[in-house]
Design brief:
The complex is a heterodimer of chains A (643) and B (411). Chain A is globular, with a radius of gyration of 28 Å. A four-stranded antiparallel sheet of chain A has the order 1-2-3-4. In chain A, strands 5-6 form a two-stranded antiparallel sheet. A two-stranded antiparallel sheet of chain A has the order 7-8. Chain A contains 26 helices and ten strands. Chain A starts with a helix and ends with a helix. Chain A is of the alpha+beta class and 643 residues long. Chain B is an alpha/beta fold and 411 residues long. In chain B, strand 3 and strand 4 (88-90) form a beta hairpin. In chain B, helix 2 crosses helix 9. Classes of the chains: A alpha+beta (643), B alpha/beta (411). At the A-B interface, helix 13, helix 22, helix 24, strand 9 and helix 25 of A face helix 6, strand 7, helix 8 and helix 9 of B.
Chain lengths: 643, 411
C-alpha cells in the first residue's frame, strides 16, 4: 500500500514537472548512471552557477547539477517539494502552501536557467539533420571572413589548429568529414567560436541517438521500400541509406562507415536476394566500428569472417589443397597494405609456379571457412571447419623485416598488423585521400601513419587528432576533393531543408543516375574519384538539382521558401544569402555581376534578355523562381561540387 | 597550365568560346556537324582481366595437351569450340569473332603485355590505360588523352560511353565520358518555365566562366571545363541520338547499348576514338558461369555493330581493339576459376585489319615456365601501330618500344 502511494506521488511529481517544463523529463533518470555516456556534456562558467552538467536524452536536453561526485537531475529536486505541496494542499495549510510554492517557483527559475544554459551551449540543439524544414534561419553565420594567413608548414602539421576558428572552418569540417552543412547545423558555428576547435570536433564526433522517427523510416524503406514490396531489396537498402545519411544525428560515424565501405568493398550481386540482409549486417559492422573504439586490426578480423565478404571474394571456396587466392590478394592489396610501399617497393610477393609467394601463403592461412545458407531463416551461417584448413606453420614475408610464422587467418591478420610496416601508411593514405586531398604529401602520410600506429590502429582517436589539426584546416586542401554521388545528393537534400520530409522512394531512377549504387559497386575497387567530375557528372547533378527543385511529390509540404531569405534585400545580398546556404562564397566580381544579371533579367523565346524591375526580394513568386535558379547555378559550380 | 590554357584545350575545335551567344546549342550543333571523317577506333576494355586463353584457345598439338592438363575444366575439347585456322578455336559464345577471323577481318595478337607487369588490377589497368612501355615509368595521362592534346581535339573526338575512363583523362585533354549517350541530356530545370529553363542553362555557362579558379586547385578548373563541354555538346549529342538509324537493331544489353552509342559517335558525331568498358571478367571462381554470358553478349553486340558499320560504309575505316588489363593464370584454380595472370591476347578487328591469321605463337613453355603467360609484344607497340594506321604520329604520344616491332597488322 505504501508502495502504491509512493508511486502515485511520483506520478504527480512527473505531472507537475511536465507542467513546469512543458516536456517530459524522466524522474527516474539517474545522471550518475549515464554520466559516462557520450550524450553527457558539461558547460563551464555559467553566470551564477559555474560549471553545470547536462544530459541529452531522446526527450531533449536535461539539465543537472553536481552533488558531490554524483550528478543528480535538478528536476528530481522538485519531486519532494511537489510532494510536500500536495500534502499541504490536502491539509489546507495556506502558509505552508505559499512557502513551498515559493520554493518551487525559485527552484523552477533556477532549473530553467540551467536548462537554458545547457540548451544554448549544446551544439546538437537543434540536432544535426532534421528540424522543421519550414524555419528559415534568420541569422546566418558570417561565412565571409577573410582567409587567415597560414604558415606553409601548417599543411603538413598534425598539431592542433591554434588560430581562431571561423564559420567557414565549421562548414569545412562538416562537408569533408560528414554529409554537408545544413542550416540546422549552423548553431555549431557559435559553439565553435565560443569553445574552440577541440570542443567542436569532440562534439562533431560525439555519438547521439538517432531520432526514433528516422530509425523507423529507415527500417520501413529497407524492409520493403515503404510497403511497395514485401521483402528487403537492394533498392530498398539504398533508399534507407539515403534516408539515414540525410537525417543522421551522427554525421561523423556514418561518413566514416561509408569510408570503410569504400575500403572494404562488398557487393550484393554475389548473393541471392534471400540473403540480402547480410549486406545490412555488414554495414552495421562498419557502423559499429565507426561509433566505437574499434581498431582496424579487429575490424579486419571481423570482416575476414563475414559471410558476405567470404562469398564476395571467394574465400569460402578457399579450402585445404584447393587454394583460391582472391581474398588473400585483396586483403593485402586493398584492405591492409597496398601493392607497394611509399618507395614503390612491392609490399608482398606474387604466387610462384612452385606455390611459394606471400599471396599463396596467405591463401593457405585463410582456409577453413564455410558458409551455409539457411533458406528458411534467410541467414548465411559461417563456420570454421578444421579439415578445410591447410595446416601450417606458414611463413609470411620471408626474408623481410615483416617476416612472421602463423597457422590460420587470425595469425595472418594479426601478423600483418603487428609486423608489416606498410599497414599504417596504407591507412594514412586512404584516410587522407578520403578526407583531405587526392594526392596527399608524403610527409603527411608518414606523420599520420605514425599516429595511427601510436593509437594502436584505433580510428576514433586518430581521426580526433587529425580533424583538429592544422593540416586538416589548411586552405591548401580546401576545394580539392570532389564530392561523391552520395555526398552531393545527401548534401543537396539537407541544404535545401528537405531531409525530414523527403520521399526517397519517389526519387527512384534519379538516384540511379547519380552513378553510385553503394551496395552494388562496379568492382572491389569501389568508385574511382574521376567518376565525380567531368561534364557528364556535372550534367547529371544539374539534372538532379532540377528534379529536387521542381518535383512537388518528393518532399510533401516543402517549398524552397523554407531556406530562402524573406526579408527585402537587393540582388547582391540575396546572392550572398544563397551563397551562404550553399557554401559557395568564392564570389568574384564577374560572378556576382553574372548572377545579378540573372536575377534582374528574363529570357525571351528568341534568346534575348529583357530587364525586370530591380530585384528587392519582395515578390514571393520571383523569389521562388530566381532563388531556385541561383541554387541550381551555384550548386553546379566548383565550390559546391568540391569539398 | 593556367585556366585559360586549360579551357582553350578543352574547348578547342568543337565550339569556340567566342562563339558563345544566345543559342549556344544550335551554334555548337552546326559547328559539330562539320567534324568527322578519317579512321575510327573503338576500344573495348574487358575490365577485371579477361582470360584470353579462354576466349581463344589452342586445340591441336602439345600446347593443347599441356593446357588441357593445366585446365581440366576450362580448356574445352575442339568439338565444343569454334575452330579457325592456325590451331586455335574461339569460345562458343564468340561466333562473330570467328566469322570476322574467317573473313580476314580479325587478328588475334598473342602474349601482349608491358614491361614490369603487375598482377594488381589497379596497377595493371593504369599501365594499359596510360600506354606506357614500362609500368615503373608512369605518366599522368591516358594515351587517348595525349592523342587528343597533341591534335587539339574537341571532347567529342574521344568519348567513353561507359563512364569514367583513365584512357581519356589528362590535364591537357579530357575526352567526354558519359554513362550512355541517352543520359547525356539536360532534363530541364524542374517546374520552371521553358524560358527560365533555358535562361538557367545559358547562365550555367556564363557563371562557370566568371568563376574564379584558384591556383593549385586543378579540380576547380576541371569542373569549369566540364561545364563548358556539357553546355557545348549535350544538345548535339541529343540530336544525334534522336535522329540515329540502324540497319540492324542492337541487342538490348549493356554491351548492345554501348556498341549502339559507338555507332552514333562514329556515324553522327565525328568521334575518332570511342571507349567501351565492360566489367565482370575477374573470374576467380566458376569462370564459365561468370563470363560465358558476357562473351555471348559481346558477340551479339559486335555482330550488330559490324553490320551497321558496313551499311554506313564505315567498316573499312573502323578499327576495333579488344584489350584487358591482364590475362589469367595458366592453371585453373580449384574453384573452376583463374587468378590474376600476366600477358594476354589482344584482338584487332576491322575492314582494314590484316586478319585471318594468328599473330605470334603460344608454346608449351609459355604455359609451364611460369604461372602466367610471358610478354612477347608490348601493348604500346599495338597502340602505336593503330595510331599510325589512323594517320597520327605515334611518336608524339608514346615512347619507343625497345626490341621487336609489330608489323603488318593492317592490310
Amino acid at each position: 500500500m505504501r508502495k502504491i502511494s509512493s508511486l502515485s506521488l511520483t506520478k504527480i511529481a512527473v505531472t507537475l514537472t511536465i507542467i513546469v517544463f512543458g516536456h517530459f523529463v524522466d524522474p527516474e533518470t539517474t545522471f550518475a548512471a549515464k554520466a559516462k555516456h557520450r550524450n553527457f556534456f558539461t558547460v563551464n562558467n555559467v553566470p551564477g552557477f559555474g560549471k553545470i552538467n547536462c544530459l541529452r536524452t531522446a526527450q531533449g536536453v536535461v539539465a543537472g547539477k553536481k552533488k558531490g561526485q554524483k550528478v543528480v537531475a535538478l528536476s528530481k529536486d522538485l519531486a519532494p517539494l511537489n510532494k510536500s505541496l500536495k500534502k499541504a494542499q490536502r491539509k489546507n495549510k495556506a502558509a505552508k502552501i505559499a512557502q513551498i510554492s515559493s520554493k518551487i517557483a525559485a527552484l523552477t527559475t533556477r532549473i530553467q536557467a540551467i536548462q537554458s544554459a545547457c540548451s544554448a551551449n549544446d551544439p546538437l540543439n537543434p540536432p544535426p539533420g532534421p528540424s522543421s524544414p519550414q524555419q528559415p534561419n534568420p541569422n546566418p553565420p558570417n561565412f565571409n571572413d577573410p582567409v587567415p594567413s597560414e604558415d606553409p608548414a601548417d599543411s603538413l602539421s598534425l598539431e592542433p589548429l591554434d588560430r581562431p576558428i571561423q564559420a567557414e572552418d565549421v562548414r569545412y569540417l562538416f562537408e569533408k568529414a560528414g554529409f554537408g552543412f545544413s542550416q540546422q547545423e549552423w548553431p555549431f558555428v557559435d559553439f565553435a567560436i565560443n569553445h574552440g576547435v577541440s570542443a567542436l570536433v569532440d562534439n562533431f564526433m560525439a555519438h547521439r541517438n538517432e531520432l526514433p522517427e528516422v530509425v523507423a523510416e529507415v527500417e520501413d524503406l529497407r524492409d520493403g521500400e515503404r510497403g511497395v514490396v514485401d521483402q528487403e531489396t537492394a533498392y530498398g537498402q539504398r533508399l534507407a541509406l539515403y534516408k539515414l545519411w540525410s537525417n543522421t544525428s551522427n554525421p561523423y560515424e556514418e561518413r566514416m562507415a561509408l569510408f570503410l565501405l569504400g575500403v572494404w568493398t562488398v557487393s550484393i550481386e554475389v548473393i541471392d536476394v534471400t540473403f540480402i540482409s547480410s549486406y545490412w549486417n555488414y554495414l552495421n559492422r562498419l557502423r559499429t566500428a565507426a561509433a566505437n573504439d574499434t581498431n582496424l586490426e579487429n575490424l579486419a578480423l571481423e570482416i575476414t569472417k563475414d559471410p558476405l565478404m567470404l562469398i564476395f571474394l571467394n574465400n569460402e571456396l578457399n579450402v585445404k589443397g584447393k587454394p583460391n587466392e582472391n581474398f588473400a590478394r585483396e586483403l593485402m592489396e586493398l584492405f591492409t597494405l597496398g601493392p607497394r610501399n611509399l618507395d614503390g617497393v612491392a609490399n608482398y610477393t606474387e604466387t610462384q609456379l612452385d606455390g611459394s609467394g606471400d599471396i599463396a601463403v596467405a591463401a593457405k592461412m585463410l582456409t577453413g571457412f564455410k558458409v551455409t545458407k539457411n533458406w528458411t531463416n534467410k541467414e548465411l551461417i559461417v563456420s570454421y571447419v578444421s579439415n578445410r584448413h591447410q595446416p601450417g606453420p606458414h611463413t609470411m614475408f620471408p626474408g623481410t623485416v615483416a617476416q612472421f610464422t602463423g597457422e590460420n587467418y587470425e595469425d595472418l591478420v594479426r601478423g600483418i598488423f603487428a609486423r608489416h610496416p606498410g599497414v599504417k601508411y596504407f591507412y594514412a593514405t586512404e584516410i587522407l585521400k578520403e578526407y583531405l586531398t587526392p594526392n596527399p604529401p608524403r610527409d603527411l602520410v608518414i606523420k599520420l601513419g605514425q599516429l595511427i600506429h601510436a593509437n594502436g590502429y584505433k580510428l576514433r582517436p586518430t581521426m580526433n587528432t587529425f580533424l583538429k589539426s592544422k593540416a586538416f584546416f589548411s586552405h591548401v586542401y580546401k576545394n580539392t576533393l570532389p564530392k561523391s554521388g552520395v555526398e552531393f545528393f545527401v548534401e543537396s537534400v539537407k541544404t535545401l531543408g528537405m531531409a525530414p520530409v523527403f520521399r526517397f522512394e519517389n526519387f527512384g531512377w534519379q538516384l540511379t543516375e547519380l552513378g553510385m549504387e553503394v551496395n552494388e559497386p562496379p568492382s572491389v575497387f569501389w568508385y574511382p574519384m574521376s567518376a565525380w567530375t567531368g561534364p557528364a557528372t556535372t550534367l547529371k547533378r544539374a539534372n538532379i538539382l532540377s528534379q529536387l527543385l521542381g518535383d512537388d511529390s518528393i518532399a510533401p509540404g516543402w517549398t524552397i521558401h523554407s531556406v530562402l531569405p524573406s526579408a527585402p534585400m537587393n540582388s547582391e545580398n540575396f546572392i550572398r544569402a544563397i551563397a551562404n546556404l550553399t557554401g559557395t562564397n568564392n564570389l568574384t566580381v564577374d560572378l556576382m555581376a553574372a548572377l545579378s544579371n540573372y536575377l534582374n533579367t528574363e529570357r525571351q523565346w528568341n534568346g534575348q534578355l529583357t530587364n525586370l524591375p530591380a530585384f528587392d526580394n519582395t515578390n514571393a513568386a520571383r523569389r521562388e523562381v530566381k532563388g531556385g535558379g541561383l541554387f541550381y547555378l551555384l550548386a553546379a559550380l566548383p565550390d559546391y561540387q568540391l569539398k | 597550365m593556367n585556366r585559360r590554357d586549360f579551357l582553350k584545350v578543352i574547348s578547342a575545335g568543337a565550339c569556340g568560346l567566342s562563339a558563345w551567344g544566345a543559342f549556344p546549342f544550335l551554334r555548337c550543333s552546326n559547328a559539330m556537324a562539320s567534324v568527322g571523317g578519317g579512321k575510327k577506333l573503338l576500344i573495348v576494355n574487358f575490365d577485371g582481366g579477361l582470360d584470353g586463353l579462354y576466349g581463344m584457345q589452342p586445340v591441336v598439338g602439345p600446347v593443347f595437351d599441356t593446357l588441357r592438363g593445366l585446365r581440366p575444366t576450362l580448356c574445352r575439347l575442339p568439338e565444343n569450340l569454334l575452330p579457325v585456322s592456325g590451331g586455335f578455336a574461339f569460345h562458343p559464345g564468340l561466333a562473330e569473332m570467328r566469322n570476322l577471323f574467317n573473313s580476314g577481318e580479325l587478328l588475334p595478337i598473342l602474349n601482349v603485355g608491358y614491361q614490369s607487369m603487375s598482377r594488381s588490377h589497379e596497377e595493371a589497368a593504369k599501365a594499359v590505360s596510360q600506354g606506357i612501355v614500362n609500368r615503373l615509368t608512369p605518366t599522368s595521362s591516358g594515351f587517348v588523352s595525349r592523342l587528343g592534346a597533341v591534335n587539339s581535339w574537341s571532347n567529342l573526338r574521344a568519348v567513353s560511353v561507359s563512364g569514367s575512363d583513365n584512357m581519356l583523362q589528362g590535364e591537357a585533354f579530357q575526352g567526354l565520358q558519359v554513362w550512355g549517350l541517352e543520359s547525356y541530356n539536360f532534363w530541364g530545370a524542374g517546374n520552371a518555365s521553358w524560358s527560365e529553363n533555358l535562361h538557367r542553362k545559358d547562365m550555367l555557362y556564363s557563371a562557370s566562366h566568371a568563376f574564379g579558379v584558384e591556383d593549385g586547385k586543378p579540380k576547380q578548373a576541371e569542373i569549369v571545363g566540364g561545364i563548358d563541354t556539357l553546355v557545348n555538346s549535350s544538345g548535339v549529342v541529343k540530336d544525334a541520338v534522336t535522329s540515329a538509324t540502324f540497319a540492324q537493331a542492337y541487342p538490348n544489353t549493356r554491351l548492345g547499348k554501348m556498341f549502339k552509342d559507338a555507332d552514333i559517335l562514329f556515324s553522327r558525331l565525328g568521334t575518332e576514338v570511342a571507349c567501351i568498358k565492360r566489367s565482370g571478367f575477374d573470374s576467380h571462381s566458376t569462370q564459365a558461369q561468370a563470363i560465358d554470358g558476357i562473351l555471348s553478349e559481346f558477340s551479339n553486340a559486335l555482330a550488330a555493330f559490324v553490320a551497321n558499320m558496313k551499311s554506313k560504309n564505315l567498316w573499312q575505316d573502323t578499327i576495333i581493339l579488344v584489350i584487358s588489363e591482364f590475362g589469367r593464370t595458366n592453371v585453373e584454380n580449384d574453384s573452376a576459376g583463374t587468378d590474376h595472370g600476366g600477358a594476354n591476347s589482344v584482338f584487332l578487328m576491322g575492314g582494314a585489319v590484316n586478319g585471318g591469321q594468328i599473330y605470334g605463337d603460344l608454346t608449351t613453355t609459355d604455359l609451364t615456365n611460369d604461372a602466367w603467360l610471358p610478354m612477347k609484344f608490348n601493348i604500346v607497340e599495338v597502340y602505336r601501330q593503330v595510331f599510325a594506321n589512323m594517320g597520327y604520329d605515334p611518336n608524339l604520344v608514346f615512347d619507343q618500344v625497345p626490341g621487336a616491332s609489330l608489323g603488318g597488322l593492317f592490310a
